[in-house]
Specification:
about 90 residues; 2 domains; 3 strands
């Protein structure tokens, strides 16, 4: 199971604690190192994983298999495979 690593967008620390949610329901975090607080997106992880899944989907057509391999939901796999990564 691949987990997204969340890190502070200011100092890069991974010492984050959950700190409520914002208006659209994204989890907010507070950094224990520098005190930054806000929504932390694991964007880097998403893009990288997405790329791998999309690449793999060109060789293997089973989205269920891909979802299992990469530890993501079947829905997520389908969504990613459908959409080509923006460049
Ligand atoms: Zn920080």
């Amino acid at each position: 199971m691949v987990e997204g690593v969340k890190s502070c967008r200011k100092c890069g620390s991974e010492k984050l604690v959950k700190n409520g949610k914002n208006a659209v329901g994204n989890a907010k975090y507070k950094c224990n190192s520098c005190g930054f607080s806000g929504v932390i997106e694991s964007k880097h992880y998403d893009d990288e994983l997405k790329e791998q899944v999309v690449k793999a989907s060109l060789e293997r057509s089973s989205s269920r298999g891909l979802a299992r391999t990469y530890g993501i939901s079947h829905q997520t796999a389908l969504r990613w495979i459908k959409k080509k990564p923006r460049r």
